[in-house]
Amino acid sequence: QVQLVESGGGLVQAGGSLRLSCAASGRTFSRYAMGWFRQARANEREFVAAISGSGITTYYADSVKGRFTISRDNAKNTVYLQMNSLKPEDTAVYYCAASESGIGASPRPYRYWGRGTQVTVSS
Prior knowledge:
The radius of gyration is 13 Å and the shape is globular. The chain is built from no helices and 11 strands. The strands form 2 sheets. Strands 2, 4, 5, 6, 9, 10 and 11 form a 7-stranded mixed beta sheet that branches. Strands 1-3-8-7 form a 4-stranded antiparallel beta sheet, with no helix packed on it. The protein is 0% helix and 50% strand. By secondary structure, it is mainly beta.
């Protein structure tokens, strides 16, 4: 069982930055690939970024490539999402998730999910 708690969301102007954090419980954090997803209103949950358990491999949605950076600190059981050059279309609830089945963009392999943190980007 892994419990995930996101933090760092908020209101920011377009062009600004935020850093999201996701703290995980448990002693086997490095076994899990971690992903960030987002959901805006009634839209489907959308993949944002993922990172392998070792942190060596990362994967990004085209819409955030070059602006967002995913990283992790396995000693702190935490994964981060640095978001720069934010746009109003980045407004959503951001969720972190943990997968035992490797890195990927589909939400299906991610067994554990946090409750999300709201990010609002004003124009």
